[in-house]
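Sorry, any thoughts here?
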Amino acid sequence: MAPQQLRLYQLEPDRIDEFISLWRKQIVPARKAAGFTVEGAWVSREEAGFAWVVGYDGPGSFEKADKRYYDSPERAAIDPNPADFLLNVETVMVEPLV
């Protein structure tokens, strides 16, 4: 089973749809280009929350691949910067039970 990371974001409440568009059009393609898979994503509009699970089954560790992703030209090209939408970020490595 590929290592997976649960990413929990608290978003700027008035920018949820803008973030989702950026996530779909730029973040997901950049992650996939770096060898990651997107296992699922969820939004809570009431809580301005966004959660997604990203997996990696390539060479090396998840952590090294994640660093390569953040250092990549594809990540640098994402505009606007995803961090501009985020009030809080939590990440945790997870494994599926079912």
Q: What stands out?
A: The chain has one domain: 4-94. The longest strand covers residues 36-44. The chain has a mean pLDDT of 96.
